[in-house]
Amino acid sequence: GASMITIFPKPPGVIRLGDSVTIFCSCQRGDGNFVLYKNGHLLRTLERRSSRAEFSISNATQEDTGAYNCHYLHGDTVLARSETVNVMVQEFHLPTPVFTVLPGHDVIGGAHVTFRCTIEYSRAVCFLYVEGQIRDLSLLSQERDHFNISRVHGGNGGHYSCQCRTNSIPFKWSVSKTLELVVR
């Protein structure tokens, strides 16, 4: 059967110039190697740690911006390919968003949870991210600054953050602190 590779950056979303990001690739098969590509070009063979490999970028620069994906190989045969994850490195110029989770960080399964992200800047849009996923969960705006999860379960637990950017080009960015949601 076909093997699936999962790929995700940590932290998710836009990376602040000078910060670090790690790209994780994982596959359930155990008899091959991971190869990381950036913008379609072979970047490096990744060192395996059990069923996954990681590629760390420290002191990120604009040159680290790009489209990354992993291939899983046995010898010269490609067994699987991941989706593409876009890494963007930017300077952060906006105020830090205020990010909260209600009713709190530790909830009982079945509860209703609201993530709220607000920023002191008109005409900014914000995005909600959860670690381990490629894409944002939701686009937030001045009109709707929250994201609701009804009847949470264990799979909703994780590390969440919000990032905001201006609507005008060139974009200006900011990121919130990370909040952990624990579902019991």
Automatic annotation (TrEMBL):
It holds the Pfam family Ig_2. Residues 3-86 form the Ig-like domain. SMART domains: IG. Gene3D superfamilies: Immunoglobulins. Keywords: Disulfide bond, Glycoprotein, Immunoglobulin domain, Repeat. GO terms for biological process: immune response-regulating signaling pathway. Transmembrane segments: none annotated. It comes from the Eukaryota. This is IGSF1 protein. The gene is Igsf1.
